[in-house]
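ugh ok fine here u go
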Amino acid sequence: MFKQMKLSALKFSLILASGFLMASCAVNPYASTNKLYKKQAKAYGKSLWAVPQVNPEEVAYPQGDYWVGATNFNMRKPNYVIIHHTAQNSTEHTLKTFTTKATQVSAHYVIGRDGKVYQMLNDHLRAWHGGASKWGNNTDINSSSIGIELDNNGAEPFAEAQINSLLGVLEMLKKKHGIPAANFIGHSDIAPSRKVDPNPTFPWQKLSQSGFGLWYDADVLDSVVVAKNYADSVATGKVDTTLLQQEVLVLQQEPKYKVPDTFNPQDALRIIGYDTRNMEAAIKAFKLHFIQTEVNAELTEKDKQILYNLYQKCL
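structure:
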């Protein structure tokens, strides 16, 4: 009896163990492309191990007597995070796009609408996510950035679970790589004439409040009541000219923070980081990020106030 019980217990344990084994060995639909990733990473590793070789016939300078390997170095350090929307209809669609060689595009992280995060590339490797882009004087954003793709068709609001996961990823990246707060930007910021992602519903203000990206001060658009002498008010055309007494004080509402007459919006956009060679595109990208309504190439007085405030933060 005791022996039968032991055999039954052993059988049960084996069944349980095999169940766990089967669960842990579930087929990964990306097993074949994962092999390609490992193969490429291994090839790059071999090139790093190799002693640099230069053909003397191909260079116009004398070579040293022997190779000397420096001892003070590390891996590529990402200094920017670029946020995208996928403009596709599912996470699976995007994962397939980024594992198909012919597409020639990739990103370090993909975050689904359900909040699930897929890291597709080591942070120290160069993803192909920015394309032809520019931010400040940096014309090779891919070499200094981490690309994050949010599963979004480009016209819908971003899911709460997705934004919560994004904030978690950004916090990890900021701590891990020491990325400055101002260097969390969007694809449209670095490629204003080509891209419009992430879409206008993206919560840039919420990200900034968590320490990721610039945002303007809360009171920038506030106004104050100013008492002005009648004569001064007539000169500016802001009062009823039927008033006769110069001693009359007139109360007027004016912006709390005035934009100087000498303010140059193009210089401000350039100092923030925008490529202003196409000024219309730069204004649209700025408004997509910071205004998020009436995304056009016109700068209203309100837009200029916000732009001036951000420009001052970048000086």
